[in-house]
Write a structure and sequence with these properties.
four-stranded antiparallel beta sheet; globular
């Protein structure tokens, strides 16, 4: 009996040792696969400090961060410690991403994973024939960041088929050949309906993505021509989180504006070495904050060094839609779709129905920076946009002309008002 017990424990011991060896090998192999650049702790810390310095100089939403009860300095201290403890490059990228998310996501603040990097490159490719020469010059600093040698090398090692940071080393081919659901689905299709009572047309646009521009251009032109005897057009943007301003400017406003209009907005920023080239490339004329009129000086004079006034003008269309345009909005309306909502509110181009929007309508695409050692790209809006009443657009969004009550549906409310 004792001999059998000794044999059992001997076999069990060998099994445990073998299992431990296998687990150690797998762990070591995983570390090897996730170490794509071989960054030292000093290089990681240098990148982190560079990022913090750029954010301190140029990120315009620190006031919103503080008002949300977030202690910036404490987060800096906490993550400076955790950054040095990351064992792999992928772990470092993830830690930077977690760090940025601590600040509430104001102004697009985030790190580009492989999937987002690919979306940027696809958008640049799709926009080549759409952008004017001036617009191409405006985005040149973004192109330079996306295509710098260090970043290109890093993103070649990152999985671009799925969201999140992971190395392609050791990644199964069938996984890479699959895509994030957002990639596998067709581009959002336009949805149209016609109502008899009230006599209204309905158009749902879920994205202002430039990749939809050419596909939607002809469809929308024919759709507008079909509305000659319809007094109301309802445009549903409730699930539209942005894209490109060119989409709504060229495909919605220019064909339908009934008279010459101008929308004016104030933007604020802190001019720094990290954003000067980006601002110059966008051809933005700016003045020192001391020259701004009230109430902006009282609100923002202590927060920013400079400001600019953006004026967006449109001439009357040749054959505009003559009926009333109503736009449905929600808190998912953000970025480029936010800009369209603000334009409608400021000019009376359309009546907004729904809830307050998500905010961050900007004067330019978010700024991109590349961290020097890792090539990891971080983005954020460099300009602090305001509403007509002087309030910050990122924090407050745009209030619709007609606010729905809790439990109400914006489309049902709109149809009720038009009946």
């Amino acid at each position: 009996m004792c001999g059998k017990m000794r044999t059992f424990f001997c076999v069990a011991g060998i099994f445990v040792l073998a299992l431990s060896a296998v687990m150690a090998f797998v762990q070591q192999q995983n570390i090897k696969n996730q170490t794509i650049l071989g960054m030292t702790a000093e290089q990681k810390l240098s990148d982190f400090d560079t990022l913090c310095s750029v954010l301190d100089e140029s990120y315009p939403f620190w006031n919103e961060v503080a008002q949300s009860g977030i202690d910036k300095n404490e987060i800096y201290r906490t993550y400076r410690g955790s950054i040095t403890n990351t064992k792999t490059d992928i772990a470092f990228f993830k830690e930077i991403s977690y760090f940025l998310k601590e600040f509430g996501g104001f102004g697009h603040l985030s790190a580009l994973d492989g999937h987002m990097y690919r979306l940027y490159m696809n958008a640049l490719s799709a926009s080549g024939s759409t952008l004017s020469e001036q617009e191409k010059r405006n985005i040149q600093p973004l192109i330079e960041v996306l295509t710098n040698a260090v970043s290109q090398k890093t993103y070649e090692f990152l999985d671009q088929s799925h969201e999140g940071f992971r190395s392609i080393s050791g990644l199964k081919e069938e996984y890479q050949n699959q895509s994030t659901p957002a990639n596998t689905q067709a581009l959002p299709q336009l949805v149209t309906k016609f109502y008899d009572s009230p006599n209204a047309a309905y158009l749902k646009i879920d994205s202002f993505d430039l990749m939809n521009y050419k596909r939607d251009q002809g469809f929308l032109s024919e759709f507008y021509m079909s509305l000659k005897d319809i007094p109301y057009l309802i445009i549903d943007l409730r699930e539209n989180s942005g894209g490109s301003d060119l989409y709504w400017q060229d495909l919605i406003v220019k064909p339908n504006v009934k008279e010459s209009v101008t929308s004016e907005r104030y933007y604020f920023f802190n001019l720094s070495g990290s954003n000067q080239d980006y601002i110059s490339a966008n051809g933005i004329y700016f003045e020192p904050i001391s020259a701004v009129r009230e109430p902006y000086l009282s609100h923002y004079g202590h927060l920013f060094s400079h400001y600019t006034v953006d004026k967006l003008s449109f001439d009357m269309a040749d054959e505009p839609y003559q009926g009333e345009i109503w736009v449905l909005v929600s808190d998912e309306v953000y970025s480029a779709s936010e800009n369209f909502a603000m334009f409608c509110k400021n000019t009376g181009f359309a009546t907004l129905v729904g809830t307050a929007t998500g905010g961050d309508g900007g004067i330019a695409d978010p700024m991109l920076i590349s961290l020097p050692n890792s090539g990891l790209i971080v983005r954020f809006s460099a300009f602090y946009g305001t509403n007509a009443d002087g309030s910050g657009n990122e924090a407050n969004g745009t209030a619709p002309n007609i606010m729905i009550a809790d439990g109400e549906d914006a489309l049902e409310k709109c149809l009720e008002l038009l009946s």
